Amino acid sequence: MAHSRFAATEPIGATQPMSQMESSEPQVEVQKAEFDTLQSGPRSEVKERKLDILLDLKLPLNIELGRTSMQIKDILELERGSLIEIDKYATEPVDIWINGKKMAEGEVIVVDKHFGVRITNLVETAERIKGLGK
């Protein structure tokens, strides 16, 4: 990258008078740069515009009925009709995981022959947002 040397018409912090400075280079006028002031809308509007970029992203959503662990020999013996006991009671809420982070709890319901989940409890907003990025 090439650098140019210019002598200022009004030296800034120069220790020598202008007449003693090297005069073989062209003289230019140095002025202070002026910029327009930045304007932005209300903070909520700015945040809303930032979130608009993310609204079309898809994240994996999992509904977890419960968990358990089994020995390999028991897993190998599983067959059609086998029962697996999990760590939750039928009346307990199921966990709703989005992108690998717990975001809510809900209850299992049936809607026209299909299972569904009605959200009953949400994780705090700050925790939900923090959890989405990881």
Order of helices and strands, N to C? EEHEHEEEH
Largest sheet: 4 strands, antiparallel
Q: How helix-rich are the residues, as a percent range?
A: 10-25%
Question: Which class of secondary structure composition applies to the elements?
Answer: alpha+beta
| Name of the CATH superfamily of one domain | SpoA-like
The count of helical stretches stands at 3
DSSP strand content:
15-25%
In the CATH scheme, the class of one domain would be Mainly Beta
The CATH topology annotation of one domain reads as: Surface presentation of antigens (SPOA)
- What is the 3D form? elongated
* CATH architecture title of one domain: Roll
Distance between the termini: 41 Å
Strand order of the largest sheet: 3-4-5-6
Overall mean confidence score, pLDDT:
79
Radius of gyration of CA atoms, rounded to a whole number: 33 Å
Low-confidence parts, pLDDT < 50 over ≥5 residues?
none
Written account of the structure:
With 134 residues, the protein is α+β, with helices and mostly antiparallel strands. The protein has a domain at 56-132: Surface presentation of antigens (SPOA) (Roll). The protein is built from 3 helices and 6 strands; from the N terminus they run ββαβαβββα. It has helices at 43-52, 72-76, 125-132, and strands at 7-8, 27-28, 61-64, 94-98, 101-111, 114-122. Strand 4 and strand 5 form a beta hairpin. The two termini are 41 Å apart.
